[in-house]
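agent> call fold_tool(seq_1)
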Amino acid sequence: MTRLPLRLRLTLLVAVLFGLALTAAAAVGISRVETSLRTDIRQNAEALLVDYLDQLQGGSIGPGAPGPEEATRFIYLDAQGNDLTAGEYQQVLFDAIDQQVEDLPILTVPDGSPFPIDLFDDAPVIVESDLIEITVQPVAADGKPGLIDRGDDVIAVGVPVLIGDAPLTVAVSSPLRLVTDSIDTLTRLLLVLVPMLTATIGVATWIIVSRALQPVHAITAQVERISTESLDQRVPQPSTDDELGHLAATMNRMLARLQAARDTQRQFISDAAHELRSPITATQATLELARRQPDQVDWPRTADVLNQENTRLTALVDDLLLLAQLEETSSPTGAQEVDLDELCLAEAQRPHPHPIHVQVTNPARINGNLQHLTRAIRNLVDNAAHHATSRVDITISTNHESAVIDVADDGPGIPPEDLERIFDRFTRVDTSRTRPQGGAGLGLAIAHQIADSHHGNLTAKNRSPSDGAQFTLTLPKHTPATSERSPL
């Protein structure tokens, strides 16, 4: 089932569920119709029986007349449950009359000749007279008709009564042929309608699902056409604000992130290749010159040049590896309690081109990686000292949740157009790219990445047009990922 296409699976699921629901509804409907018809037939039979008993008590004697349906008939049972003929039942009625009067009245035939009534024992006789009273007493307390088992083809309701002293049951039997025929007709009709309706719903579901999945197919086709060389393309986005619209928007945002990551990676590779090429080229040129003129080479100076270029190359490789490591981890590794005051004071003791002044407004302790934090502050101080005119100021303070380190210089500041890209890798704001004036452009990028890995932030601004730049390093007092391992 899971190997089938989604459209077919949804269609089958809807069709099956609809078919089951429709079948259940049809079964319930048939059952209710049958129950309703049976109830109507029983109520009609009960009404006919009650009406006959009322007539019997009123003085009309004789077998009950058939109902509206020809097959509806009265039946009479003795105390043992045996059927009585109309004549036997009429005899019971006459016996009940004999118990009340000594002489039976003599009926007059149409021509006026009198004759005794017992001559018509075997034929239905209706006697209407104010002198006749028949005692009819229900055996049951409520006197309501009840069902009598006369087979599955009929519904029979009867009332056990005493007519005079004779116990018997007067009942009305109605056929169920009308109910059976109606139910059979309805069943055959539903056997045709249910599959037809189920098939119609299946076709409608197929069409609706096909139209609903068209944007998905368009997105899939577009994504299959997109490669690393065409990440600037986007998937078609429906105008509706629904799940498919959100899916397309999410895909486009993901493609935008992939494009940005690819462009950053390409730029990084290009810049890294450029930075690595310089020391490698210098080393190769020095070695080639020494190889061609070994007798004229100043070997101690050549060794110094090679060592200097090798040191630059090693530092650059270390910085690149550190950046890659920081980008792969969202939390600092090897976290411990770090005293930022001591770290900044120790950094101020290192030799710099200009004096470093440290002001501790509030002592600050955090949980973090000591080596990484030392590298971040050192990069900030080295950058400030490189651009300072006379001094560098470090201020340490705290607020409710964070420790704040401000590193400021009195140099020319940062050009406004470079403030947003100052933390990008291989970014230099110096007009000259000579080595004494600028590094590889990774120091501030590393410091910014270290701040991110500690769930902090690093920002840059100009204090004024002529007062130099200020870098603000904000670190949480307790980073979420390390507070449990190294609580204060």
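agent> call fold_tool(seq_2)
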Amino acid sequence: MAYDHNKHAGNEGDICKHPALIAALDKTLARSNRRAFKYADLFAGYAQNPLRSTGEWRQGIGVIAGKRLLNRNSHVAIWAKCAGLDVRPGVDANYPGYPGSAWFAQDVCNKRRRRVEFWLWETASAPHKNLRSAFPRAHVVKRSAFPKAHVVNTPADYLDSAIHNADFVFIDPPSKSHWRRISGLLRCLDPKQAVLVWLPLGANTRKTPPVEDGLSLRCRKEALEELGMGVSSIRWAKGGHTIGCQLLYRLNANARHALIAAVERIIHLAQLSRGKSPKWSYSPDHF
């Protein structure tokens, strides 16, 4: 599915997703003794997202930016610095753009000073072009901070050896309807591979107020009971088609606890920013 994440960039889902990714990847890197660490992102999106004036970022980075992001959690601080959210009281028209997942991952690998090979799949033309310009081939940019990157303009083939040989697999599909294929892939991956999946919490709008829909619930139940994954679910809205998100992960203990700590810090800051708006709720179902 060709999908342009641009209108969603920097929204509530991203401010949960990216600190969680940074925490999980950083602690996975710390425990890895592979000479060349391999990272796979099956739905990579933009390296840098230009923000739209009507974008959803207004409910995410638009209210949470500021120096307080640097306090108490090192992974939230890495996210804030990489995104340039620490030097401004709020995002405005001068903001250069919000990074995508691959850019955050690159920043973590650079901080760990690890040799790394990226595999990035993206089918939409504009994000793919942006990725290609942001991640030049390794032989073109010698002795640089850029990882060796393979930017692929076709859907990820779930039998691809690049996925099955990856040390860290990140999956952020355009729709939770991809879950059937994703769960099939997860069953085939080596249990030692680190995996993080981000999915939206969809709403059943036929109920008042809307409740989480059946597909979201089935994804979480299968991840917990059949795949043995940890799950953290976050809800920030009472209505609409998307009422929150869930993070499904298979990680070492240090990475799991770091992910949970980063998400809890973000939720605390987001709630402070929203005041009397509907409260965020958080449930670590299993870890």
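agent> summarizing second result for user.
The longest strand covers residues 194-204. Residues 65 and 264 are 16 Å apart (CA to CA).
agent> awaiting next instruction.
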